[in-house]
Sequence to fold (199 residues):
Amino acid sequence: SITHLLDAPVVYAYSPSQLASDISVVTDDRQGGYLAGEHLTELGRRRIAYVGGPDSYHASHLRREGLVAALDKAGLELATTPLYVPWEEKAGRQAARTLLQRNVDLDGIFCASDQIARGVSEELQSRGVHSPGQIAVVGFDDWHAMTLATSPELTSVSMKLDQVGEVAATRLLELIGGVSVASGVEYVPCELTARGSSV
Fold:
């Protein structure tokens, strides 16, 4: 462990340590996916698709799991097979084309990043599919350079990275001060901001 190599307190932030004996503070990706699904179902959306980031990213799967849990609570399931694409706008555009070709009459799409969501949203608009009228779109990250520059502005789930940093710094100061801190992963809840792409 790096902790032992440095012989100094270490707290992992954003990306967790692989060792259960270490202390990590991370975004609750699964809960964030749940928020997105809950938002869409509360709006009355019933045929919801998921566009994740690359299949190799654990966060892509955690966000899908959260979405699926929210759909399950509403008595629903994913309207179509999930797509896993690069974290890029152009991949979002291609994903939107793929979803439209499946003819599943979607009314909601949750994307695992704002970049993907922006590509999805713009492709829908270019094909005359109105958002949120026909298909509501929700992103993830709440990166204002994307969410506020997209038309309509993107509803998005914030990773609360400022809070992740604050909690990690607090845990580190506690360790330095000799306070006993539980090892393992501490999850910081996400927060959804609704904008024009869904409401």
Summary: Residues 1 and 19 are 8 Å apart (CA to CA). The mean pLDDT is 95.
